[in-house]
């Protein structure tokens, strides 16, 4: 699906914001348009992608989950008050923080109603249209925090990276996207949490029809050998969350996988798992994933 021009996103936001009372703006969220007080000073954020994009815009939350798993979010962890986990808010700590705005999304979205009792709350969940939502959230935060120029600059940079990745993918064959969790392997196709790599970059699926479910399709080494992809794109869940056990490289180092076209050609790409599994849809996460894919495809 083609993404709308970033300027168009800002035009829409500006049009809606113009109808809001002075000091308020209307922004797009995962639950629809929401009107908020502009430039909230004390933000508590429970979503890694949201924290990623806020940091890119120069907005540092005062409260974040106690562990974010993404090294690029360390700056947020250092100066902020721990307010629970990515899944479970610490309502007492959150209340003591007296936030002006609470941001949930993804893993924390089910806790929307609980935290919304304490302060205005927005759900900024990223859908399987990761790039489209990443740009929409960037535009929304730019409007909310009066940082439209910076958001537009970052959006233009993403557009350039997307174009570079698409150019690099042309004529390079198909791909199979897999996630490893120790010895377990799942495959992901179009419409899934990682399927945007097919849709956005333009790499055809090596095996069409995979489940769009959040956990993907459980597969075997034999399945990978049978599909025999031109490219094998790997996300290591264990590495993302610091789990013990076999790494993705160890799990996939066997004759069946090594006999595929991808392995023989050196086309097995181990993406930075924290950027896909933890912070997927954040500005820096998306930028780094696009850069990694472009480098692999051009190499």
From TrEMBL:
UniProt record similarity statement: Belongs to the bacterial solute-binding protein 8 family.
Species this protein is from: Paenirhodobacter hankyongi
Location relative to the cell: Cell envelope
Signal peptide: 1-22
A Gene Ontology cellular-component term: outer membrane-bounded periplasmic space
Coiled-coil residue windows: none
Pfam families the record matches: Peripla_BP_2
Gene Ontology process terms (BP): iron coordination entity transport
Ranges of residues in domain Fe/B12 periplasmic-binding: 42-299
Matches recorded under SUPFAM superfamilies: Helical backbone' metal receptor
InterPro entries, A to Z: ABC_transptr_periplasmic_BD, Bact_iron-sidero_bind, FatB
Protein's name in the database: Siderophore ABC transporter substrate-binding protein
Transmembrane segments: none
Keywords: Ion transport, Iron, Iron transport, Signal, Transport
């Amino acid at each position: 699906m083609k993404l709308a021009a970033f300027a168009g996103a800002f035009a829409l936001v500006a049009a809606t914001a113009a109808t809001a009372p002075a000091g308020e703006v209307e922004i797009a969220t995962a639950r629809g348009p929401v009107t908020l007080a502009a430039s909230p000073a004390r933000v508590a954020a429970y979503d890694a992608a949201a924290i990623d994009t806020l940091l890119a815009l120069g907005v540092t939350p005062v409260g974040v989950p106690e562990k974010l798993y993404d090294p690029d979010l360390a700056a947020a962890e250092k100066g902020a008050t721990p307010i629970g986990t990515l899944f479970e808010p610490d309502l007492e700590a959150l209340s003591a923080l007296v936030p002006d705005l609470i941001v949930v999304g993804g893993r924390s979205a089910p806790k929307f109603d609980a935290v919304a009792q304490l302060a205005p709350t927005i759900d900024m969940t990223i859908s399987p249209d990761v790039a489209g939502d990443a740009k929409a959230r960037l535009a929304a935060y730019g409007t909310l925090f009066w940082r439209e120029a910076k958001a537009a600059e970052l959006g233009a940079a993403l557009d350039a990276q997307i174009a570079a990745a698409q150019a690099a993918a042309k004529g390079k064959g198909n791909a199979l996207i897999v996630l490893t969790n120790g010895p377990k392997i799942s495959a992901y196709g179009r419409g899934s949490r990682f399927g945007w790599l097919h849709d956005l970059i333009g790499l055809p699926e090596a095996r069409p029809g995979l489940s769009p479910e959040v956990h993907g399709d459980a597969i075997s080494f034999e399945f990978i050998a049978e599909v025999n992809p031109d490219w094998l794109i790997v996300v290591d869940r264990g590495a993302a969350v610091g789990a013990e056990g076999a790494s993705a490289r160890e799990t996939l180092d066997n004759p069946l996988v090594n006999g595929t076209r991808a392995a023989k050609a050196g086309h097995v790409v181990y993406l930075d798992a924290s950027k896909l599994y933890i912070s997927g849809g954040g500005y820096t996460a998306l930028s780094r994933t696009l850069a990694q894919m472009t480098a692999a495809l051009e190499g």
